[in-house]
User: Fold these one by one.
Assistant:
Number 1:
Amino acid sequence: MKTIATCAVMLAVLLLNACRTDKKDAVVFKFDSNKEVSGKKIAIKDVVPDLPLDWDDYDYVSIEFRSTTPQRFHLGFTTDEGYNELRLVSYVPKAWNKLVIPLRFFREAPAAMHDIASTSNQPRVTGWINLGGKRGALRGVDSIGIRMRAPVNNPEIELRGITLHKEDPGDEYLEKIPAIDKFGQWKLGDFEGKIYSEEQLRKEWDAEDAAINEVEDFNYSLYGGYLNKKVKSTGFFRTEFINGRWWFVDPEGYLFLSFGINGIRPGGDLYTKNIDKCGNMFQELAPRELFIESANVSPETHSASFGVWNLYRRYGENYIQESAKMAVRRMTGWGINTIANWSSPHVYSLNRKAFILPLRGLGTTNSLMGLADVYAGDFHDKLDKAVEENIAGYKDNPFLLGYFVGNEPAWLTKEERLSKLILEGEDCPVKTEFLKYLKKGDTPKRRKEFIYKTFEIFMKSVSKSLKKHDPNHLNLGIRYGYIEQLNDELLRMSKETFDVLSFNCYALAPDHAKMDYAMKISGLPMFIGEYHFGTVDRGLAQSLWQVNSQKERGGAFRYYTENGFAHPGLIGASWFIWCDQNINGRSDGENYNCGFVDVTDRPYPHMAAAAKETAKRLYYIHAGEKEPVNVYPKAVGHSPVPDIWE
């Protein structure tokens, strides 16, 4: 029999719960896959009746939600100044969680950073944020909107809480069942090819080991050039314009097209991600010691790289060396002939494939949005020393294709913002020179001219130093963020400083008309530094260009690559990236399904098959002897969502 005191406590709890008015039952947002954009706006009072309309006194908003999909969604608020939204991705689809969004992301432009990704991507514990939309004050906040572009499989998002905070309360995973299994896979959903046991995984690894030596003939030379045609050899890679088409020429004199993959680092990103605040998200964590060696991790930081852990399971203590050898074997089997940017020295130092190196430490900074203070008294000496250190050990290596000078500088197309950062910032040499330049007139045009003048000094300085220390290898230029940035002035400067014009191009296929113009003005062959396609079946986000299945990833890869190389000026293209990103995000938050290899160290069959077929055809396509594949894929990009709702 219950005591009176016990009954009183129970009654008090019931009354307390009955009086809570902080939130109502979950509101469900349903997304229609038949629509280009699907979503709705609702009154905030339908979720939280008493939330203030004026958010000036708050710095964080927390949303409590559950999404059936890892697909990127747009979340925004209607204010007195209009509608203001960001892009969000959940690391824990099918799980309730709290994701905290700093309100400065809605109020002001992102902080000045070095490149586009670090400017836009903001990591959290249970998801990540990609900045976009318009900025403004958060007053009169009366409604919330959630929408998706090209939603896959009619997903849903349930929203049951919105709270405001002055201090960051931290994200929170709210389920008892872990979201990520011991292999680094999505635990809350099933998908084709999922691993459920170590025994199953070892059988698949053994099957690949047995089949990997069945290499198809791609008619490649020692360096990956085409035995179809040979011209003058110099012992190093160079470029040549032959019968109206640009080509690389390999060290033996064979025509060469760079067909590569970025980030060939077995196991994926070897950075660390602090997981101390992830709660119950993980089924099991890898030993700390595993990452101290491979990723130069502080022993005090408990971090997770499931891709590396799976390599340790596969190969044991020699996992770094053995996985590097397997990467080269896979490349040979798939027809991939270039180890592209940001790859592991354990792979390219084997000297089995052509490789590309990024130059580091050249003086570009976050505070100048990826520009360098070329007016500093010690700039040229520091630059020269950095270049000399970069090329040490490589200047006589014939497998080195060339060097990239930089990647996606954030200041391009944002020259006015950079100008204000310099002029309103602390005293420094670039500010002194800028003020001196503006004495003859301070106009938007002259501000832009100064920024470009500064950039040109940087480009010419790098080119001069590179030729001094390594005259053998190509200057592949700066990987501009996208081809639309390439105005006449940039094309002129590139012509005078680079051997190859490079740009990243996330699209269904490269735009030949824009490439025609770029080649005409610059007079240079072209290299596409990044492209990819992804989907949402494995708990990962869909990448910058979305398709609806793994099979469609392979088809989109073939369409893009073959149609790109059909252009007479394109001599290189590199897929981004070798291994899927960690399901709980890399250092800037991204968790894309963009790999040729998954977290369990198994190739995606459709990607490998697509690479093989395209590799056999690229020479003939670029030579104009064969047409590129014309099966038009269904794919949707990362561009801003049209201003439409249900």
Number 2:
Amino acid sequence: MTFDRVAIVEASLDAFLAQAAASATHLQPDAPVRSGSGLSARKAVELFEDQLTSRQLDVAARELKKTNRSFYTISSAGHENNVVVGAQLRINDPAFLHYRSGALMMARARQLPGSTPAFDALLGIVASSDDPIAEGRHKVWGSYPLWVPPQTSTIASHLPKAMGLAFSLARARRLGVATDLPDDAIVLCSFGDATVNHATALAAINTARYAVRLGLPMPILFVCEDNETGISVPTPEGWIASSFGHLEHLRYDLAEGEIDEVWDTVAEAVRFVRGARRPAFLHLRTVRLWGHAGSDAEQSYRSAEEIAENEAQDPLLRNARRLIETGAATPDQLQSMLADTRERVMAAAEEATRRPRLETTEEVIAPMAPYHPDRIVARAATPLLEPAARLELHSGTLPEDALIPTARTLAGCLNAALADELGRRPEVILFGEDVGRKGGVYNVTNGLQRRFGTGRVFDTLLDETSILGIAQGAAHIGLLPIAEIQYLAYLHNALDQLRGEAATLQFFSSGQFRNPMVVRVPGLAYQKGFGGHFHNDNSVGALRDIPGLVVAVPARGDDAARMLRGAVAMAAEDGRVVVFLEPIALYHEKDLETDGDGGWLTDYPAPPAALLPGEVGIYGPLDTGTADLLIISYGNGLRLSLQAARRLREEHEIAVRVLDIRWLNPLPHQAIREQAAAIGAVLMVDECRRTGGGVADAILADLAEAGIGRRLWSVRAVDSFVPLGSATSAVLIGTDQIVAGALTTVSGRLHA
């Protein structure tokens, strides 16, 4: 029935054009379609041609599906009036598009001579590697020359980064960071009426309004393409207007009626956003023809009468009638255009099916995680501040006779490293909840706003989704964001901003778009019973599951500074997204063994010293013959393992080498194999939860599969949320467990 409905809609347009009588009026090309309207006859005909092209792309996708040559059948049919938005915005107005934005894309591409948007879309539909944006990895609306970053989202996850880009436009200019966008550029973000109910969408719209309340520019046009349906779930009548029509700090415009009326409404909305630098919500009435996708049998939830009523609202029928009635075009002219469009698109579709597809693993993953260590090292080393400039930068924090502070805690080294990165990289911005005036909940960002100003170090509202959206948007235009999520447990509120958006951008744009960023996340446990679960989250599995995401966990101050430089350089050079997980319990720790020993203080390593993934820390006897056991750990586990190593040496005469992996993704498997092969007995100390929470599974499995290590064992935290108070010791690992695990491993009684 689905394909029958496609044929019925097509036949209806044919029949109308065949029977329509030409108007007695014949408009000149530059004459308005209606007195007082800004839409000319010439432009109206162009819009209709772009709408026809979009419609025929949808028909072609479903026709090819019949022979299993198409892999994407979500159509734009019924949404074609979004063509007006595409025609009125410039191609240097960044656009984050809804998946039903076919006509909009055709009109946008019309502004770029030589572009082939229909053929490009068809290459995506058939998953050809010749697709110029995603190279067959997915069908997306995207184009680098048209400034359309590809969106994989159907449920609002693109709204926060669109908002973030609008938020960042003026900031980038004030900071002198060059972009390829004009001063009056605005951001377009389109989505559906069901999408706008998602918490992610509401977060982005709320933050846009919040920015206006603070007096900040927010030039974004939100376009809600309202077809009154979310797959099979109807949107209540009047819901969009009642929800967004009267919000403070958000202009609302309803675009409906004839094509010229829609044109004029859109023009007013665009003019407002561009001039006032404030957000607008454009409510665009549409209709969804056919099912949600080719596999969706809408007759299972819509009656035949409802389907027929929808088809009677086909915007192509209405627009053809309007063009003929006003004299902007004749029936013969439109018939000829329709026939030509059908022939052209179907010929292009057949050609697209003959184009190559991705075949190898290497081809598929090539753009996902670019990594050029030599270039990253060079990037980490430049630029460097002159000694006098560094003294001024660290004024009040450096000894008078030194260029670098010494004997610092983890927090102190991070603060100095952040200051150095801000000082030598003008594109770096630092933000999050409480990072500015307060200096961070744990004092890590103390003094940075005072030294670098509110343009570069600033506080955000309490919304993790918006924080990561701002990071992505800023990164799109050349800024290098260092965003803070206040606690690891809070990151899960916004995880899809990393999983579904930030980490996928290079993959689905074949490396043409990128959003380099470092996301600082205080986390892990061991805060001596304080804070409970939400301040002691000891699970990183959700992060390690994201392809291409780098996860760093420093344990010592000197490592933290060097790893942060490596993370920033990776982001700047290769566009990588790095989560920098900072162990809260180690922020202000000074001692290793006994009170006052200062064993956890380190000298601050001045730039350009940096660490990259694969570079590990090794403690203990380096001569292979003198080590009985290799303990592998990270974060808090490193400090506990070093304490256990002393006890094993003094109480049991067991020589232990401790390896700090530092990087949880990618894991330093090569370095681990080398150390494990040399020693044989291996104990993995993983402070995260036993089942899927940490990295023990992956490390031990790799060693086992490689046949490395005579004896492999692990100690891990209990599968539990972290409680409050002294009960924490019942679920977290301690030195006693590490010592017991070490004795088991060395003795070989692994199954006792």
Number 3:
Amino acid sequence: MSRVQAGSFAPFTVSSNDPAAWRLPTSAEMAALDLETIHSGVSVLELMERAGSALAANVQAYLGGSHGRVLVLCGPGNNGGDGLVAARLLAERGVAVNALLIRSERYADDCIEQMRRFGAAVVEGDLPSPIRALGPLVTSISTERKEELFSSAALIVDALLGTGQRLPLMGCVADLVGRLRREQIDRPVVRVLSVDIPTGVSADSGQCGDLHVRADLTVAVELVKRGCLQFPARSACGEIVAAPIGITGASPVSVQAIEGAARPRLERRRIDGHKGDCGRVLVVGGSASMPGAPVLSVMGALHAGAGLVSRVWRQSWGASLAQAECMNEIVPGDAAVLGISDLAIVVEAAKRADCVVLGPGLGMAPDTCEFVASLLKELVALGSRIVVDADALNVLAESGTTLRGARAIATPHPGEAARLLNTDTTSVQADRFNAVKGLVSRLGCTIVLKGAGTLVCSEHQCGVVARGSSYMATAGSGDVLAGIVAACVVRSSSLFDAAAVAAYVHACAGERAATESGGPILASDIARYASSVMGALDR
């Protein structure tokens, strides 16, 4: 069993070392996997029984030794059916449990069958016609009785809507979710467990409706859905536990967690290797107003294991900032920025590097923009591997050019991504999966879209880093990541693998730094803790 304690995020658990267990499907991809399993001979009813059994086990584990009452809120579809199975099994085990069913004019056949096996109570009013034939097994309750069920519950199970739900919530579902949220406010001791995904949360984008369930624990049926590892959904899910139920479908899933058995591996360091074997990194960045940015990239590369790291530098920018282990490629003059006159010296230095980091602290002076555009053409012609970050990305956004044909990894934060996509940051954050795919199409290279739940994407692969800390939101954190990416490029079989491992190392280093400090951290702290994370990966 792999349990990921993701820094300031809540943990999630996957009880398998099979890389396939770390897939993160969309609602449509999960439906295809379900359908394949059903076509193989496993009925929907059987899958419902398995899901309900896993849910009941998690409810009991969450209750621990307490004997509190459980209220299961059930919708009209398969999610509600899973809840009814769990309610029946809990009752058979002596747990005090009630099932409250929303009013609907249409119920899934297998959900109706689960009502027949256990029964349910429907919120006040006449019984809907589809379940009237069940007789006394399904009863209508008063508003007063509904209030009693809520106020007496130690644990409320949200089995209202599954991955196919549409936002915003309406009708009876909205009423029950609103009632649940009021109970959480009035009685903070009540715990909430969601089945598969909290109601009111998008399984695909990770967005939440204005009204949504905030769970303490989400039991993901078979696989964690990709939206659950993006914010704000990540906050709504609480702890996440994947509950395998034997879904055997093999349809493609486009996103996976960069974690556990699914995390790419670096090539092992040679026992008898020397510094030249461990990679030569050149950092091209800096200006008189931002001299520290390339130094942070240097630190990231060195602490991630690069053997030799150099920076392009003017002595007038402040040599005292230099990392002792860093070499300098000196450009003459006292200009405040890099410009086209510096191109020849930088190109010669790039010829000796295994990877070039371009962008940190460059600024956007016209001469610098011309320098960046010309240098990128030279690097592409050389076949250099490039990490494109910060102002180099802004040059691309301003010019409309791409990195297609380059051996490049681009590392935008949401603001830079918005400029590249000619949109705004809010739109990027509203659907980061769509945004990162758009960036791959726009730039034609591997993308690291930074942020909580960093996304790494190429034309054929996409992954989510489910680790990190809110304290990583500090100046220079992205500069450190660019250096770590460059160090990983030398030891990876593909640019995607390098970007994925680097993003993972960066997030874990941020977690460790924040744990050690007990609070805020500096970007340089992240760089230093990258050493221990890389060491753990090498063991």
